User: Which sequence fits this backbone?
C-alpha cells in the first residue's frame, strides 16, 4: 500500500508540474492588488488558477475582478455596485462577489483530478487540516479583510470589472463594420420581423396539426396570491436583491414552467437531456428535459426575479437557411416577475443569442419608451392574459425551431411530460468517472460552429451562431447588447404601475396588508431611493 501511495503522489507531482508549465506558457498569472500579507494564500491561489486554466476548466460565466481574483462579478452585480450609497451597501455587494467566486471555484474543483488536488493540498500544509475548498474560503475572507482597509478599495473593484468580452473590436475593424453593418441591420431586422409575425397566427383547433405537447412533470401548487410573500421572504437588505439559493423558489420555477408543443416526432424536433457522444455532445430525445436557472434584472430600478428555461435539440436543419444548419440547437424562454410575482416580460432567444425578442404584459407596461436610453430590443407583441391555473404555451416549428404561436393554456390531464433540471447539469455533469461541461472556457459549445461566422464576422461576435453559455450571449449584431443586461427592460419600456415602497418589498403578507391600510389612512407613499425616483 505504501508503494501504491508513493506512486500516486509521484503521478500527482508530475501532473501538477506539467500543468503549471503549460499554464506558464499561456501566461496566466494572477494579478493581486490585495493588501493581505498572507503569502501562502497568494501562492495557493496562483497554483489553483494555473491548474484550472491549463486544464481549460475555468468557469467564465462570471468575470474575475482584475487585481482582486477572489471576487467575481456578473452584469447584475456590476450594476448593483453602481447603485451603492452607503458603506453597508458596498460591504453587501463585495460579499456577494466573494461568495460568487467561491461558488464557481467549488465547481471548478470538481473537474480537477483527485491526485492533482492532493498535490495542491500537499504543497500547503494548512489545507491538510480541513479541505482545499475550506482553505480557499478562509483565504478569500483574509483577502477581503485586508483590502477593506484601503479607502479606495471599492472604486478599484468597480474599475476592475470588465464584462464586455463577447464583441471584438478587431473583427469589426477588419470587417469594415461601419459599412457592412448597414446591410446586416436591414436583413437581420427583416428576418426577425418575419419570425415574430408568426406569433399573431390564430390558434389551431385540436388535431389540426401534427403536434406533440409536453407539460412539466411537477407543476407546483403555489397560488398567485402567495407569490409576493414568497418573493419578499427571499429579499436581502440593504439592496433588495433576491437570494437565488432560496429553496422555496423552486415553486416559482414549477408554476411558470411553459407548455411546449413540438412539430411531429422527427429526431431533430425532440428536445431532451444533453449527453456525451462520439462526436462530442448530443440530445437524448427520449428523455424530455428542460433546464432552468434563476437570474436577476431591474424592473423600475428594483431587483426582479427572472426564471430561465432552456431546451436543446439535436440539430438545426431545414427550413432554416443553409448557413445556420449544424449540430445542436436550443431555445431559451425567460419570465421576468415584478415584486408581486406578476409576469411583466417574457423574452425568447436561441442559445446563440440570435433572434431575440420581448413580449410584455400590457396591464403593467405601456409600451416602448419615447426616449430610449440605449439598445432597443425587438418587441414581439403583448403577452396573453394568464388566469391562476393557466400557463404560457409555446408552439415550436420543425427543423428551425422558431416560435410559431404563443397562447395561454389551462390544465390538461394525461399529456406527455418533461422533467425540470438545474442548468448546472449542463455546466458540470458526470460522464463515467469524469466531470465534464457542455461549454468550453470561452462559454461556447464545441462542435456547434455555423457557416454564417465566415460572412457575419464583421459584426464583431467571435464564432457568431455557435451555441453559448449563460452570461456569454450577445443578442444583437448592431451595437452591443447582452441577454443578461440588467437594464435591458428599464431602458426600453414605460411602466403603468407606481413604484412599490421598501416596507412592501420586504414584508410578510400580514404586514403588507397593514402597510396598505396605513397608506390609505395617511395618503402617502415612501420613496425607494433617489436613483429609483429619478428613473436612473
Assistant:
Amino acid at each position: 500500500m505504501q508503494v501504491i501511495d508513493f506512486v500516486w503522489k509521484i503521478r500527482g507531482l508530475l501532473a501538477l508540474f506539467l500543468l503549471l508549465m503549460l499554464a506558464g506558457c499561456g501566461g496566466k498569472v494572477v494579478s493581486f492588488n490585495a493588501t493581505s500579507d498572507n503569502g501562502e494564500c497568494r501562492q495557493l491561489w496562483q497554483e489553483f488558477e494555473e491548474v484550472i486554466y491549463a486544464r481549460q476548466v475555468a468557469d467564465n460565466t462570471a468575470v474575475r475582478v482584475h487585481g482582486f481574483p477572489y471576487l467575481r462579478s456578473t452584469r447584475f452585480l456590476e450594476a448593483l455596485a453602481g447603485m451603492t450609497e452607503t458603506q453597508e451597501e458596498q460591504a453587501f455587494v463585495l460579499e456577494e462577489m466573494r461568495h460568487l467566486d467561491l461558488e464557481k471555484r467549488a465547481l471548478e474543483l470538481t473537474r480537477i483530478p483527485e491526485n492533482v488536488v492532493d498535490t495542491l493540498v500537499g504543497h500547503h500544509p494548512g489545507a491538510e487540516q480541513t479541505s482545499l475548498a475550506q482553505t480557499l474560503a478562509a483565504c478569500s475572507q483574509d483577502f477581503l479583510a485586508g483590502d477593506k482597509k484601503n479607502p479606495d478599495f471599492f472604486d478599484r473593484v468597480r474599475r476592475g470589472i470588465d464584462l464586455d468580452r463577447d464583441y471584438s473590436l478587431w473583427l469589426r475593424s477588419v470587417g469594415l463594420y461601419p459599412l457592412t453593418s448597414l446591410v446586416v441591420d436591414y436583413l437581420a431586422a427583416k428576418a426577425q420581423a418575419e419570425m415574430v409575425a408568426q406569433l399573431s397566427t390564430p390558434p389551431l383547433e385540436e388535431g389540426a396539426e401534427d403536434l406533440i405537447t409536453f407539460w412539466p412533470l411537477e407543476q407546483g401548487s403555489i397560488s398567485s396570491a402567495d407569490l409576493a410573500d414568497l418573493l419578499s421572504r427571499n429579499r436581502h437588505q440593504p439592496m433588495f436583491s433576491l437570494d437565488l439559493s432560496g429553496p422555496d423558489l423552486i415553486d416559482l420555477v414549477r408554476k411558470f414552467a411553459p407548455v411546449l408543443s413540438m412539430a411531429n416526432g422527427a429526431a431533430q424536433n425532440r428536445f431532451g437531456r444533453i449527453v456525451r457522444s462520439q462526436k462530442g455532445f448530443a440530445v437524448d430525445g427520449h428523455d424530455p428535459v428542460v433546464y432552468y436557472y434563476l437570474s436577476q434584472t431591474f424592473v423600475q430600478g428594483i431587483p426582479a426575479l427572472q426564471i430561465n428555461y432552456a431546451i436543446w435539440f439535436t440539430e438545426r436543419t431545414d427550413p432554416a437557411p443553409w448557413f445556420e444548419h449544424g449540430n445542436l440547437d436550443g431555445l431559451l424562454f425567460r419570465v421576468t416577475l415584478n415584486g408581486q410575482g406578476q409576469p411583466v416580460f417574457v423574452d425568447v432567444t436561441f442559445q446563440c443569442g440570435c433572434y431575440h425578442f420581448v413580449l410584455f404584459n400590457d396591464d403593467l407596461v405601456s409600451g416602448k419608451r419615447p426616449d430610449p436610453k440605449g439598445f432597443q430590443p425587438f418587441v414581439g407583441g403583448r403577452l396573453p392574459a394568464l388566469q391562476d391555473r393557466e400557463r404560457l404555451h409555446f408552439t415550436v416549428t420543425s427543423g428551425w425551431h422558431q416560435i410559431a404561436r404563443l397562447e395561454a393554456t389551462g390544465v390538461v390531464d394525461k399529456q406527455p411530460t418533461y422533467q425540470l433540471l438545474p442548468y448546472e447539469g449542463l455546466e458540470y455533469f458526470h460522464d463515467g468517472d469524469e466531470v465534464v461541461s457542455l461549454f468550453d472556457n470561452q462559454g461556447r459549445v464545441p462542435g456547434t460552429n455555423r457557416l454564417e461566422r465566415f460572412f457575419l464576422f464583421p459584426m464583431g461576435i467571435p464564432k457568431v451562431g455557435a451555441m453559448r453559455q449563460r452570461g456569454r450571449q450577445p443578442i444583437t449584431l448592431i451595437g452591443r447588447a447582452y441577454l443578461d443586461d440588467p437594464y435591458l427592460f428599464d431602458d426600453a419600456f414605460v411602466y403603468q404601475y407606481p413604484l412599490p415602497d421598501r416596507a412592501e418589498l420586504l414584508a410578510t403578507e400580514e404586514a403588507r396588508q397593514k402597510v396598505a391600510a396605513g397608506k390609505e389612512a395617511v395618503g402617502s407613499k415612501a420613496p425607494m431611493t433617489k436613483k429609483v425616483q429619478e428613473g436612473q
